[in-house]
Amino acid sequence: WAPASFSPSVVQLELLHNGLIQDPNIGENEHAAQWPGLVDWEYRCFFPSPLWLSAFHNIELVFDGLDTFATVSVNGQEILTSDNMFLPHPINVQDVIKPPEEINEMTILFECPWKKGVELENRYGVRKAPSGTPKRMHIRKAQCHWGWDFGSRMLSIGPYRPIHLQGYDLSIEDIHISSDLSSDLKKATILIRVATSSPEYTTKVKIDILKPNGQRLATQIAAVASEGTLAQFVVDDPELWWPNGQGEQPLYRVTASLHDHSGELVDSKDIRFGIRTIELVRQPLNKAPGETFMFRANGRNIFAQGGNWVPGDTLLPRMTRAKYVEWIRLAKLAHHNMIRVWGGGIYETNEFWDACDEAGILVWQDFAFACGDYPLHAEFVHNIEREVKAQILRVRNRASLALLCGGNEDFCFEEFIWFACPPDTKGPFENTSFPQRKIYFEILPAIAAELAPNVPYWVNSPWGGKTSSNDPTVGNVHEWNVWHIMQRPYQDYRYLGGRFVTEFGMASHPLLRTLAQFTPDPKTGHPQSRLLACRSKGGDQAHKTAGYLASNIRYDSANLVNFAFATQIVQSEALSFALTHWKRKFAPGNEECAGALIWQMNEVGPAINWSYIDYFLRPKPAFYSIRRALAPLSVGIRRSAAKLADDGEVSPLIPVPKFEIFAHNSTSTEVHCRLILRAYDL
Predict the structure, then answer these.
(1) Which residues does 407 contact at the CB level (< 8 Å), separation at least 6?
(2) Could you tell me the domains of the chain?
């Protein structure tokens, strides 16, 4: 046994702390840090039964997240087996836990996910997967843990989310809050439903609504009902929650207090919420084919702008509240109003959601499916149904929740890589070349409609309907004709894109400070070193980088400092170019492009990838060009060659440049500005 020093924990973090592996973020250490994910591990702890134990009839051990194949025993008795890192488990241990002040033993056996993947493939067959390994298709674990093009493979194992003991006789199990606004925004109707564990033993629930300043707004006392206790409030002149850049983010608070037949308080819970409406607007365009894909907040159409979010660390327990707050602070500083939680990662923590609620950052939430061909057997379907229900119940009251999406790039890989995506959207799907459509067209939307009927659901990202999964005139697109696929010049972004661009990007090297941190030997610090190849997972990334550099900038390929900075400049120019031109297509009544989310905002570890803020929370130069392009008031310049000179004084081989200047105003008010232009002869 080795001592465990972290709670929550994963094995790799403990081994690193005990000096048994080297930091996988340094040099090429990741290669020597793979073995912990290929064997079984066991955690053991001893804990005393608390004095309050005898006061309750129900004692539960609550596991917020176990990564991934876990068998839990308390005092020698098995209480839980789990095969889904996204499922919380409240387990009644009344019959196995010892009396107050006596010592209990808990063990958690974690089985190797790779080994379990082999077993599941033998049982259900080998699936298709373009990233990582096909084994991941069978396993409800973060898909990027198996390796992705932006970061290292790290098959983490352990109790990566908190474990706690709780006792109760009667409890509040869930609170659901929904709000509706009048057309003039002057009145809000708040509907609150409270579900309790044993309604037959309780009589009433007291529900208080507190204003954002903490003052009590209203109180209702309602009788407990088996189908849930309902309370309705009308709020005059509500303080509205707005996305960043559109207004403030006031948060109201609901407190529910549960009383038994004697009138004694037995449980209470409180939840923050925002009064707002978020709609996904799809309507025909006046001057272009297709329809809009546009978010409307409190009746106001907005251009959704921001980035894609991946897990903030390969070893998830290292993510703290302070890190989440700082990440979201930077997003707000860069004028983001939306973040997409990518489907190849995890369902983020409450700390992440708290930060988004407070900063006005809308969240596009992918369900945890990405780039693959998932099975449909009964065991898998039951597993994902439980997962999705648990996660929707956890986040559905969030002011920042804007959309629930089926997953990432599952349809486009079927269509463009495997050529196996039939146009049928009605089913039945089971005996077709793409049976997992049942997940996205039937299973997920049914659960979402039941548990979060006011939250828009979208089939997949990208998804354009029957004709193409990446249709630029309908739905959303991933614009990878620049960098991937055709590797077109970034200046072509003006012709590319779609109604809503959920992914686009340009890779770059990290900042020099970051390069120095993961490059221990100065001899390895050159652009084509084996070490930098190790930190670059994007396949032919070096070839693509060289092409975009050669086309746009002078650079020294032998000097890492110069080379890295050159990649950062090209990334900055490419992203700001795309944003300024797509924002230009957002006009009242003709919103040809209503959103752009950059791939990617953050990263799982220091690497050469598409991030514009690195692992150490250091903004790259692109961050500042993005901030300028997304400002409430911004100016763009389009440069083109008008014609060849023919005045007899200039060589006819030299094109005469033409500059077109345009401005954006994403505020809700008209602004009169004065623009000063300066030209420099370099």
Answers:
(1) 343, 366, 367, 368, 369, 370, 439, 440, 460, 461
(2) 11-167 (2.60.120.260), 170-273 (2.60.40.10), 278-507+573-634 (3.20.20.80)
